[in-house]
Amino acid sequence: MTELKVKEIETLVATAKEAQSKYESYTQEQVDAIVKNVYQKTLDNAEKLAISANEETGFGKVSDKIIKNTFASEQVYESIKDLATVGVINRRKEDKIIEIGIPLGVVAGLIPSTNPTATVIFKALIALKTRNAIIFSPHPKALKSILMAAEIIEKAAVEAGAPAGLVQVIQEPTLEATSALMKHEDISLILATGGKAMVQAAYSSGNPAIGVGPGNVPVLIDATADIKHAIDCVVSSKTFDNGIICASEQALVVDKSVKAAVIEELKAKKAYFMNEEESAKVSQFILRETGTLNPDIVGKSASDVAKLVGISVPEETSILISEQTEIGHHNPYSREKLTPILGLFTVDSFETGVATCKALLANEGTGHTAVIHTTKDANAEIFGLEMRASRILVNTLGALGAIGATTKLAPSMTLGCGAMGGSSTTDNVTAHHLMNVKRIAYGVE
């Protein structure tokens, strides 16, 4: 690695460390005022940041990115604003234990190109709430938007009384620079959102890390499901930001008794069912020769994907659907596709449906998210017990349910996949993950 790169990382970390050591002595009121101002300024700029992210990456839709940015500032803020993070945060009188919140120090935040500005807003808010500094390692494809978001946040924090240097970005992102940041002895925690290789690198850096890997969300529509509502959810979710949220649905698993009704509803929602020849053409485009997802189709609309591949579909097509029977690494329809393409698997019983969803998760995305549409609570519970997923969503949208927008899960842009998915937590990561707790404990025995 060039000396220049080493110097940039050293400077960033030294600046962050100095700023954080000042910030550590701030009161809860001072911290909350800073977090509130950051939330307000990011909310004011939600549209500007959405336009920038869309123009720079070519992913998704501006209208949906505005919703994501708004969620990352407003709903995340609402969920953490009353959390005590400074000094004595809890007195457990009966146990004679006093709990004290302490910051971690300097956090490294890895930012993907798929949700660049929303992830920056979210990670900055939870870091500032817990008196940490944060250095972002941006995906090069979204550098401009990430810099813009971080600048708005840093300015808002300083304006509200924070020391300068709490929120910074690697200006020339490379794998070497990210690696140097993650391995730096003064980094207290790495918050890694990105591809599998990046998450593994975070965990092998020698520093504590919370990493989240890929999803491959299966959706079971059982025989009892409210079909209209289920398909409303699936189509809204899968087309949201053109399917770029990793908790969006990837494969429909449909009980054969309701298959005709499911197909009818999907067609009413402008889904296009591909024939074998079209499916084969599209499948060659989903994955690259290396077996990784083809970035050319990520976050594109269904009609744009069709044009790219050379198949002819109506302009208003919402989702491309391919009927499938095989699950395996070689079959892209049984893997993660961050674009409006769905595999459709038919099953002859609830038990087979559960087994098929388990197989899809085992193929890719273990530990992430699974969805069921059912009107039987017992089925939802059996499904939840069986799935190797950290979030089991019932009768809601995968993309927005998992992040806590349509459910009461913690609002988060970083979704833990648990030990089963190579992650250190199954939680939706939020502010309390960025704070350590000291305990004063009196002898009672």
From TrEMBL:
Q: Which UniProt keywords apply?
A: Coiled coil, Oxidoreductase
Report the coiled-coil segments: 9-56
The name under which this protein is listed is: Aldehyde dehydrogenase domain-containing protein
**GO molecular-function term, one example from the UniProt record:** oxidoreductase activity, acting on the aldehyde or oxo group of donors, NAD or NADP as acceptor
Q: Please state every residue range assigned to the domain named Aldehyde dehydrogenase.
A: 4-269
Matching entries from InterPro entries are given as: Ald_DH/histidinol_DH (IPR016161), Ald_DH_C (IPR016163), Ald_DH_N (IPR016162), Aldehyde_DH_dom (IPR015590)
Its taxonomic placement starts with:
Bacteria, Bacillati, Bacillota, Bacilli, Lactobacillales
Specify the species. Enterococcus rotai
Question: What PANTHER family does the record point to?
Answer: ALDEHYDE DEHYDROGENASE-RELATED (PTHR11699)
